[in-house]
Amino acid sequence: MDRAQLADFLRVRREALQPEDVGLPRGPRRRTRGLRREEAAALSGMSTDYYGRLEQQRGPQPSPAMLAAMARGLRLSLAERDHLFRIAGHNAPPRTGSDHLAPGLMRILDRLGDTPAQVVTDLAETLWQTPLAAALVGDEMRLTGPNRSLLRRWFTDPAARLLYPEEDHPRHSRFFTAELRGAYSRQGRGSRAEALVEELLGTSEEFARWWSAHEVSAPRVDPKRFCHPELGVLELQCQVLLDPEQAQALLVYTATPGTESDEKLRLLPATASRPAGAAPAADAIRPADA
Questions:
Q1: Where do the segments described as Disordered lie (predicted)?
Q2: What is the 3-state secondary structure (H, E, C) of the chain?
Q3: What is the pTM of this model?
């Protein structure tokens, strides 16, 4: 670990970022060049004291998870992320299937604070969510291990299906299976996609039926209907921005202006504290919504 290089690199990258670059207000009395340490720490999900000690060449060696968080918080490119890992004494993570978010995607997310949006991998693992996305579908960034993948949860955990009306389930199953087939063809033998396919073939008869159809493309479920525990059913359009270099997609959910779903979407911020995975309340879905 090269403490001097690490400290200098973090300081230079922090000072190169402006508040507007990360969706923060500048304020009328701001004199700091670039971001403040406490701002960089908050963006990286760590304490100001911990981050400050790194810039002062003190403290323990950061773990790979902490380095990945700083790489996202400081909006580093892949090359800069790799450099950060190396000077901190770790091997750089593989770029294929990386959880690292491109700075361009992060800049877009910074400007979508009042919109449900999230970044997912080609295995439907959520890498980042806006607060309203978490209010809509649950805090998926808290998930770890194999259950990070919605493709796995869909076919193994009945609770994952509570988010969508039951009559929409077959279309989602068909689409998710085709998405996994695409990921498997891209990642190849020995990949995490292959491991997931083998697991689901052994545990889910439904998945096995859809898999045997060999669909490489299935109609996207759009508009999507979401069952919210307080607001009932919301019908939303899902706009997708692909980052083919890292096999990631930015999903942005919107409602047609003037519709009932648009009105419900405006009420979504008030429900942000609802626990993830909560089932819809029985009286939240009116007959007209079903």
A1: 270-290
A2: CCHHHHHHHHHHHHHHCCHHHHCCCCCCCCCCCCCCHHHHHHHCCCCHHHHHHHHCCCCCCCCHHHHHHHHHHCCCCHHHHHHHHHHCCCCCCCCCCCCCCCHHHHHHHHCCCCCCEEEEECCCEEEEECHHHHHHHCCHHHCCHHHHEHHHHHHHCHHHHHHCCHHHHHHHHHHHHHHHHHHHHHHCCCCHHHHHHHHHHHHCHHHHHHHHCCCCCCCCCCCEEEEECCCEEEEEEEEEEEECCCCEEEEEEECCCCCHHHHHHHHHHHHCCCCCCCCCCHHHCCHHHC
A3: 0.70
